[in-house]
Amino acid sequence: MHRHLSFNLATGFLSSQRAFTLCKHIRKTILTVKVIRKGSIFERISEYDSCRFLGLPVTTCCTTTHSLSDHSKETDSKKANGQSSSSTQKVPIRRGEELELRIQGLVSGGDGISRIGRYVVMIPHAVPGQLVKVVIGRVRSSYANAKVIQVVEQSPYETEPVCEHFGQFGCGGCKFQHISYNKQLEEKYQQVLRHYEGLFTRSNYIVENVMKPIVGSPVIFGYRNKMEFTFSNRRWIPGDHLGESKRISSAVVEENLRNEVSFKTNEEDFVLGLKPAGHFDKVLPIEYCHIQETVANEILNWVQKRTSEMHTTAYDVYSHQGFLRNLVIRTARNERNELEVMVNFVTSFGEDSSLLRPLALELGKQFSSIRSIVQNFTTSKGGASKGEEEQVLFGCNYIQHYVLGRTLRFTANCFFQTNPLQTEKLYQIVREAANLKVEDVVLDLFCGIGSIGLCLASDCKYVYGIDVVEEAIQMAKLNAKINGVRNAEFILANLEKSSLQDPEIQRLFHRNGILPPNVVIVDPPRGGLHSTLIKWLRWMKPSRIVYVSCNPATQVRDLESLCLMQRYRLVSIQPVDMFPHTPHIECIAILERI
Ligand SMILES: C[S@@+](CC[C@H](N)C(=O)[O-])C[C@H]1O[C@@H](n2cnc3c(N)ncnc32)[C@H](O)[C@@H]1O
Fold first, then answer.
1. What are the TRAM domain coordinates in residue numbering (predicted)?
2. Ligand 1 mean position to 184 CA, how many Å?
3. What are phi and psi of 287, to 5 degrees?
């Protein structure tokens, strides 16, 4: 759908009106662009579309969208200053031009930003404060992309990255290892502030009263409890991008398949690692990932070696053939602070399905902290590492993490926060934000395995949790039992549909003499809240809403809708850094009914 749209606009056969109708299917951040000229719509949509086309995950799409929204604010401010619109201003640079620029800050996606007058240049892998020589790449009417070719003057914020896989052509996981942690925090705080600026201005909020200082992570390496690696027969050789012509485009492969020319996988080039940014079809072998625990690296190396010796194939993203797809390693710490590890092999269905059993038995014996080895089978052609069927190869199908006095059990396809030390702080902040009284009834929307609701259950009368993943709801019910929580109930429902108005759910909220929920916690994925859910929340009128978000752009959009007609007051915004060395930021906002 999105590809068609770009094509139609590119060929210029589409009227602005029709383009606008089609635009409605795209994220709201893009919809805020006013449809005045076909050129400007095309510019933004094609940017978004090309990200999807390259096969990058949705999160990356969102990030790109934010960069654009940062950039569109720039355009808006030009208009506010009475300057000509971006589409009519003279572009001060040309593609291929080399020039020296000072890096002024970072945009939401993590790229450095510099300005020539009001014209924006986005430069990946740059550090704020650096003076860099760049070569200009793609040029748009109001911004351009550029690449660093030389650092002319270093920045006081530069640090030595610890990881050999870090870099412009590296694994694509960490973006900020070369920036001091304090500067990372400052930039993330500024990023949140930029997202909220419009809301503050329109609603007369005083920034100092609302924005709280960012909570940094006490540990910035070895903090991640989940890493997802990819098996591939296409090794990424750093610098490979320079020989673009050597790359086989998906169009060529599709053409070959149409002509029944089989696309051979190279079984000898078997790698296990991470996809570099912008290359969904290549994998960089990883020896040691510094943001995951040591034991996870040992397991990665063990699996790397043993699977490369096996007579099996890695999944090929073009031909969709091959067996091994992903290796997901998750860690947790139980009530006794013992490490519990889960290893999840994501594979295709097929004749090799029993192949991993002996390997898993050996792996389980080799590492005493492994509690669970599972195999998830999938037919998905996308990059999703969730399985349609699961088999246990060793131990059980779950691991357990202990947080705020609760033991939380989760299985391979359930969400769990990825920075455990910060999770404890995050939940503590949510608890304080909820400010519960014994008679309060809490609704924990997007509850996952019940983590937040169960941590709050002892502070209130009753908790309802809702999530769309059946496995997560089963775990939430089990977690309530394990922790002896009797005043919590978990419901399977899709919060993108109007299921909250279902009479059955409404009946649930009105029985046993329990009042309907008056405090709501929402913790949605990056896309934020669906408009029907926002309408429903406005109709339900909870006295307090605690909004936990991993995407400030959608959070601001949703808060603005919730605050419409002055129904709610924004009490505070608390940024928490759950993801050091990446551009991502978690934010907790509190709304109080007026
Ligand atoms: C960011 S996680 C939050 C989980 C939980 N609050 C926690 O702290 O572990 C988002 C959750 O939203 C759920 N989810 C995603 N889309 C949903 C939908 N349309 N309806 C209900 N739940 C959804 C996911 O399954 C996931 O558990």
1. 92-150
2. 27
3. -90, -40
Domains, the chain, ordered by start: 1-89 (no CATH), 90-158 (2.40.50.140), 210-219+415-593 (3.40.50.150), 226-403 (2.40.50.1070)
The token duo for 220 is: 């910035």
C-alpha to C-alpha distance for 134 and 114, rounded to whole angstroms: 11
- On whether the CB atoms of residues 551 and 58 are closer than 8 A, the answer is no
Q: Is the pLDDT of residue 292 over 70?
A: yes
Residues involved in catalysis: 550
For residue 439, how far is its CA from the centre of ligand 1 (angstroms)? 26
Predicted pLDDT at 516: 86
Both tokens of residue 524?
Answer: 């949605």
Q: What is the ipTM for the molecules in this complex?
A: 0.99
Nearest Cα to 105, choosing from 17, 217, 189, 163?
189
- Detail the DSSP E strand segments found in 124-185: 131-139, 143-153
Cβ-contact 524, 549 below 8 angstroms: yes
SS3 at position 283? strand
Q: What is the pTM of this model?
A: 0.81
pLDDT 10s digits, 42-61: 223 223 322 222 222 222 22
Q: Which helix (H) or strand (E) holds 425?
A: helix 420-434
Residue nearest to atom 13 of ligand 1 (CA): 446
pLDDT in tens, 369-380: 999 999 999 998
Nearest atom in ligand 1 to the alpha carbon of residue 521 is 6
